């Protein structure tokens, strides 16, 4: 703040050249009053967070209040220290701790949801793998059964079409030796001469 050059003579005549008396009489009461008014428009957290806007609003309010008696020109206002009561500081700290706790709980909830999704995905994958393996085994059993049925059917048709196939199979498997023991009166196996 400084005295306007064209108002230096007026300041000397009104306040006998006492700058402190001039400030205390004209500026100080308006600064205090307008700062309180401006602060009333801000919450504590907004005042801290938007300190630049608070300074601008305070400069405008003080300048506007001194406009009717322009001895001084306000160059700027710097609000450096905003003090709060210990009770208010405690309540802010408690609120911040509660917010941190809520955030932690939300993070835990998200982590639990993700873990549950992972567990469900793993269980679904295992169930699908078991289901696929069971289906593969069932398909293999079915294919083996169909193959055996086809083989039996083919052998049956071969026997129907060629009744001597049994004798041929016996002859192919015979090692050329006759049995060492026989039932009396029984015919010699394989030597069925016709």
Structural summary, described in words:
It is a single chain. This protein is an all-alpha fold and 194 residues long. The chain has a domain at 2-83. Helix content is 71%, strand content 2%. A two-stranded antiparallel sheet has the order 1-2. The longest helix has 76 residues, at 86-161. The relative contact order is 0.06. The mean pLDDT is 83.
Write out key terms for the chains shown.
194 residues; two-stranded antiparallel ribbon; mainly alpha; 71% helix
Topology, pairings included?
Blueprint lengths: L1 E2 L4 H8 L3 H22 L3 H6 L1 H16 L5 E2 L12 H76 L3 H9 L21
Antiparallel strand pairs: 1-2
Helix pairs in contact: 2-4
In short:
The chain has 194 residues and is mostly helical. The protein has helices at residues 8-15, 19-40, 44-49, 51-66, 86-161, 165-173, and strands spanning 2-3, 72-73.
Number of helices: 6
Distance between the termini: 142 Å
Number of strands: 2
The spatial strand order of the largest sheet comes to: 1-2
Point out poorly predicted stretches. none
* Percent range for β-strand residues: under 5%
Quote the average pLDDT: 83
Global outline: rod-shaped
The radius of gyration over CA amounts to 54 Å
Structural class given helices, strands, pairing? mainly alpha
Give, in order, the helices and strands. EHHHHEHH
Helical content band:
over 70%
Largest sheet: 2 strands, antiparallel
């Amino acid at each position: 703040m400084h005295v306007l050059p064209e108002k230096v003579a007026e300041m000397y005549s009104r306040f006998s050249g006492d700058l402190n008396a001039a400030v205390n009489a004209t500026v100080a009461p308006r600064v205090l009053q307008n700062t309180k008014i401006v602060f009333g428009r801000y919450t504590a957290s907004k005042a801290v967070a938007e300190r630049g806007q608070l300074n601008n609003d305070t400069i405008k309010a003080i300048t506007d209040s001194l406009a009717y008696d322009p001895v001084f020109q306000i160059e700027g206002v710097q609000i450096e220290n905003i003090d709060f009561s210990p009770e208010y500081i405690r309540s802010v700290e408690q609120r911040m701790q509660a917010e941190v706790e809520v955030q932690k709980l939300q993070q835990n909830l998200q982590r639990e949801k993700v873990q549950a999704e992972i567990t469900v995905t793993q269980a679904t994958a295992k169930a699908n793998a078991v289901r696929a393996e069971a289906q593969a085994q069932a398909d293999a059993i079915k294919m083996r059964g169909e193959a055996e049925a086809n083989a039996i059917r083919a052998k049956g048709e071969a026997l129907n079409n060629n009744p001597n196939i049994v004798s041929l199979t016996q002859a192919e498997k015979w090692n050329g030796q006759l049995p060492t023991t026989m039932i009396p009166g029984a015919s010699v196996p394989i030597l069925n001469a016709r």
